[in-house]
Amino acid sequence: MSPGMPTGCPGQDSRLLTASIHKCPACGYGVELFSDEQRRRCPECGEVVAREQAPSCIQWCEHARTCIGEDRWKLLFGLEEEKSVPDE
């Protein structure tokens, strides 16, 4: 690895965490989930509160294009058609 290169995914920098409130399906309590969490137990009733859909980091991370490469990123988001391999 080159000097100065990040040692982990830059999208997982704990300084960039955000928080959102999710309603407990059992008691209605507002449970705080951080952007790096998918689920947490409700502190009021103990029920598991989960995000409706866990987005892939490729969908939200500003570094996704660098991590997976420009061609793959375009392919995943429908910006470029997959090149077919000719029959041999």
Beta fraction: 15-25%
Oligomer: single chain
Q: Structural class, from helix and strand content?
A: alpha+beta
Nearest-integer average pLDDT: 78
Distance, first to last CA:
39 Å
Summed up, the helix count is 3
Largest sheet: 2 strands, antiparallel
Radius of gyration (CA) equals: 19 Å
Order of helices and strands: EEEEHHH
- In the predicted model, the low-confidence regions spanning at least 5 consecutive residues are none
Q: Count the beta strands.
A: 4
Neighbour order of strands in the largest sheet = 1-2
The general outline is elongated
Helical fraction: 10-25%
What does this structure look like?
- The protein has a two-stranded antiparallel ribbon. A two-stranded antiparallel sheet has the order 3-4.
- It starts with 18 loop residues before the first strand and ends in a 12-residue tail after the last helix.
- With 88 residues, the chain is α+β, with helices and mostly antiparallel strands.
- Helix content is 18%, strand content 18%.
- The longest helix has 7 residues, at 70-76.
- The relative contact order is 0.15.
- The protein has helices at residues 57-60, 64-68, 70-76; strands spanning 19-23, 30-34, 39-41, 48-50.
